Structures are given as C-alpha cells and as structure tokens.
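Design job #97: recover the sequence.
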C-alpha cells in the first residue's frame, strides 16, 4: 500500500479534551474525502467515529490548508481543537515551534506553548449580526430568545447562554432546538456556561451537525468573548468542559486558545 493507492485512505485519530477527530493527510495526493466518506467514517458503530474530520491539503498561502467535515457530512468553517491537534502533529514532525494554517476562517497562527500545550490564534471574533450570521439586524449581546443568549462568530456561528448551573441543563434537548433556531440561517453551535469566578467558567456544548461533544475549541473562544462582553469575566479565562480545561485569552490580535492534545492511533480506511 502506498499513499497513492486509491483503495485505501490512511488516517490518524486525535483528540483535544475528548473532542475527537479523524485526520486525513491529502497533501501530494488526489483528494478522496467527500461528504459520503465523512458520514461513513463518522459512524461510531460501523466506522471509526469522530466529532469532526479534518483534511490536510497543499497550499501556497500557509504551511498547510485545513478543511473540516462534521459527522453529518456538512462542512464546518472552524474547528479549534482539531487545529491545535494538527498543529502539534506538524510541529512534532518538523521541529518547528510556530506555523500557519489556512482555513475558511483565514490564516491561523499556532505555537508550541511548552509542557505539551499547543496554542492557536482563532482570529478576531465576529460581533456584528451579519457576520455571525443572524437572520436580521439586532444587538448580538442579548438575542430575543428565551434566556437572552449572546451571538458570536468564530468562523462558525455560536449561541451562548449564561445559566446558574450548566450541569443542570438538558443539553441534548435544548441544544438540538437552538441549533435550528430561525435566527440562525446556517444553524448554530450552542453553549451553556456558568460563572465560577472572574477568570473561570464551566461550559457544556452542543455542536451543529454533531450533537453533544466533550469539548469544543471555537465554542470555548465564543463563550470567553461573550462572557467578557457581558462583564461577567475578564478577557483571559479558564474554561472547564466535560472533557477537561482550556485557557482562552482574547487579545488585541485575536482569541488565543491553549490546551493539551493527543494523537491516539493511526489506521487505514478501505474505500
């Protein structure tokens, strides 16, 4: 079997805080991943299983180009934890401590933060209604939805609710309903967050096209931005998710996210 053997599709399984990914390296070969293949691999009983599938491809604009697929076969514009996992993999391969990654979100910068941690700048948040996007003009700080959530774009749309106890939320029921809310024409990721302290949040997440996940990088960034905008926290926070903790820092040059990654195993998918 070679990289160009069209009967096989080599892949890597990775995760960031249990937010798990299948990663396919299509650099230098004919592209093979499409929506049907993504859905087949996503099946946790008959396939491999993942929250997102990430494809690496060649580009002259950065060190690598990334394309993200959700488990339902739809495309995702951003995936922060997958970006960190791939950045760590590429830095370990090359020995580099910084690199650039081209995504639908734009060119993202990653760096080795030491102690096994990887940081990615997810870019500036999108705070205007048309950039999130929302269906009509409104203030994104408090939406006209029960619970007055905040809308934020991080290359994909987000809807963040601040609640007294994130643990008590029926995440599957509420997340599914809000994902398809008519205010979000492209559907939305949904977060429920509780304030633990001025620099500490507890958050749970429902991802559009996926469902309940143990963690989400872009959701963590959106939640940190929403909390800072509402005066609930500062701009640098620890976020505790079901799968572990991330640090998010909203700086002048963008929203930086830092946390651990894991490369679990390598495999081959038979086409």
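Job complete. Output follows.
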């Amino acid at each position: 079997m070679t990289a160009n053997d069209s009967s096989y599709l080599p892949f890597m399984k990775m995760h960031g805080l249990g937010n798990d990914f299948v990663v396919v390296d299509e650099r230098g070969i004919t592209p093979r991943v499409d929506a049907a293949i993504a859905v087949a691999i996503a099946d946790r009983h008959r396939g491999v299983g993942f929250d997102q599938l990430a494809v690496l491809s060649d580009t002259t604009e950065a060190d690598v180009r990334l394309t993200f697929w959700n488990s339902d076969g739809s495309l995702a514009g951003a995936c922060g934890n997958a970006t960190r996992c791939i950045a760590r993999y590429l830095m370990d391969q090359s020995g580099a401590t910084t690199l650039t990654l081209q995504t639908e979100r734009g060119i993202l910068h990653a760096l080795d933060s030491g102690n096994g941690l990887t940081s990615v700048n997810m870019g500036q948040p999108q705070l205007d209604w048309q950039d999130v996007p929302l269906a009509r003009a409104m203030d994104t700080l408090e939406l006209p939805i029960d619970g007055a959530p905040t809308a934020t774009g991080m290359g994909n749309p987000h809807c963040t609710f601040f609640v007294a106890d994130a643990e008590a939320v029926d995440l599957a029921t509420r997340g599914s309903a809000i994902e398809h809310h008519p205010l979000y024409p492209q559907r939305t990721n949904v977060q429920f967050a509780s304030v633990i302290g001025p620099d500490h949040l507890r958050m749970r997440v429902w991802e559009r096209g996926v469902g309940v996940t143990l963690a989400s990088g872009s959701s963590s960034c959106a939640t940190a931005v929403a909390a800072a905008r509402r005066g609930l926290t500062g701009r640098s926070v620890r976020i505790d998710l079901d799968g572990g903790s991330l640090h998010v820092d909203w700086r002048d040059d963008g929203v930086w996210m830092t946390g651990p990654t894991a490369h679990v195993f390598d495999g081959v998918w038979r086409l």
